[in-house]
Design a protein that fits this description.
Layout: H1 2-14, E1 24-25, H2 28-49, H3 55-75, E2 76-77, H4 86-107, H5 126-135, H6 159-186, H7 207-243, H8 264-271, H9 277-316, H10 323-346, H11 352-377, H12 393-411
Parallel strand pairs: 1-2
Helix pairs in contact: 2-3, 2-4, 2-5, 3-4, 4-9, 6-7, 6-12, 7-11, 9-10, 10-11
Length: about 400
């Protein structure tokens, strides 16, 4: 009995999430002792899942990978003591989260995964196939993604022109990300720039003015997220094409003009990035879908997304409530289900200008709670290498301050 309680106490201590101040800095020791073990284990499972007869070994390895990933996430601090670099901890936590969920899916696959698209002129290589599977989270060129529809290529896919276009896109979107990030923080420069954060709902304003202001912040933050994801994807594309000599066809666009979405289903199911679609399906869509059908799949997938984004909040501020992400993404699921009910009742799909208006209104309404969670967790204070280099900062600050002042004047 004493041994059982001792084991339980030890497990509780292992699973404790310590504050950043108690974590170890990134150095040679923590790199080899904490960071690399889950990475190598993840790659090992990728090697196993492309070979038949390895299922038992994959099942045996998954608990170890989950524990190693959790241990690395809560033990290593990548910020170097600078709280505005907390986005580095967030990025690492999300990578580890994906390692756990992806290997969980691979654990129970009966048949090996097969790759059918390789760089032109390359010969089959088990090691390179496993590396591609490890990093190819949309499954481009793999049999498990054949049912997915990727946005059409709008870029030249030949040599130097593709590389030049991608480089320019990365620079452009880094500037847009920086500029709109400055705009978001301009609404409350005293509180949005500190790690403790603040709400986007100003209680000193009347309800209408308050929600106009919060909707403006939400829209700006949506552009920040869009441009940030696009910038990172462009940089990854450059590495894949120039360093690993991958074919540009292996890097289809990550977005398909989401501002043109004519329904929530169109926005979330196709036009917005689908980088973690499989992760959300494994986490919640498949389990709830097997019990409650299509509605369960939709709700489970969005709740899986809510859990995923709650990891972001947990890495930022452990005191922020979990409900904000689950509630916000849960309401996105409700909107998608309502569209399906509308189609079943009327025989018509949601679309046209009314569909676009409905889509943007629903996204703004419930997306505000998501952005508020990020704001209260201190995400607006996080920085990147471009934040202090924006030539537009002075102009943006001026107009945002003027707009915020105008709103307050109208409310008085």
């Amino acid at each position: 009995m004493v041994m059982a309680w001792s084991s339980l106490d030890m497990l509780t201590d292992v699973l404790r999430v310590p504050p950043v101040s108690e974590r170890l800095p990134l150095n040679t020791y923590t790199l080899f002792a904490y960071v690399l073990p889950p990475c190598f284990s993840y790659y090992a499972v990728a090697l196993l899942v492309i070979h038949p007869g390895t299922r038992i070994l994959r099942i045996a390895l998954w608990p170890l990978i989950a524990l190693l990933a959790f241990r690395a996430t809560v033990s290593v601090d990548f910020t170097g003591g600078d709280p505005i670099l907390v986005y580095l901890n967030i990025s690492f936590a999300l990578i580890m989260f994906c390692f756990v969920v992806r290997t969980l899916e691979w654990t129970f696959l009966k048949d090996p995964l097969k790759r059918y698209v390789r760089p032109i002129g390359s010969s089959p290589s088990v090691l390179m196939d496993a590396l591609d599977l490890s990093t190819n989270i949309r499954g481009v060129g793999w049999n498990w993604s054949k049912s997915l529809c990727f946005p059409p290529h709008r870029r030249l896919t030949s040599g130097i022109w593709f590389t030049a276009y991608t480089l320019l896109s990365a620079l452009f979107h880094s500037f847009i990300c920086d500029t709109f990030h400055v705009a978001v923080r301009g609404f409350s420069p005293e509180t949005f720039i500190i790690p403790s954060g603040d709400t986007i709902f100003d209680s000193t304003l009347p309800p209408l003015t308050r929600y106009i202001r919060s909707s403006a912040i939400t829209a700006l933050m949506a552009v920040v997220i869009y441009s940030s994801v696009q910038m990172i994807y462009d940089m990854a594309t450059l590495v894949g094409v120039t360093v690993f000599q991958q074919d540009p066809v292996q890097w289809p666009p990550v977005f398909d003009e989401p501002w043109k979405a004519h329904s929530l289903r169109d926005f979330w199911g196709y036009r917005w990035h689908q980088l973690f679609r499989r992760t959300f399906a494994v986490l919640g869509g498949w389990p709830l879908g097997s019990v409650f059908g299509h509605a369960g799949y939709v709700l489970g997938s969005f709740l899986g997304s809510g859990i995923f984004h709650n990891v972001v909040l947990l890495m930022l501020n452990q005191n922020v409530e979990w409900w904000c992400m689950l509630f916000s993404f849960g309401m996105m699921a409700v909107g998608v289900i309502l569209e399906r009910v509308f189609t079943q009742m009327t025989g018509r799909r949601v679309g046209g200008w009314i569909g676009r208006l409905w889509t943007m209104a629903w996204l703004l309404l419930w997306g505000s709670f998501m952005v508020d969670g990020f704001g209260r967790a201190g995400m607006f204070a996080s920085s990147n290498v471009f934040d202090t280099a924006s030539p537009a900062q002075g102009t943006v600050d001026h107009y945002v301050t003027a707009f915020d002042g105008w709103l307050r004047k109208c409310a008085s």
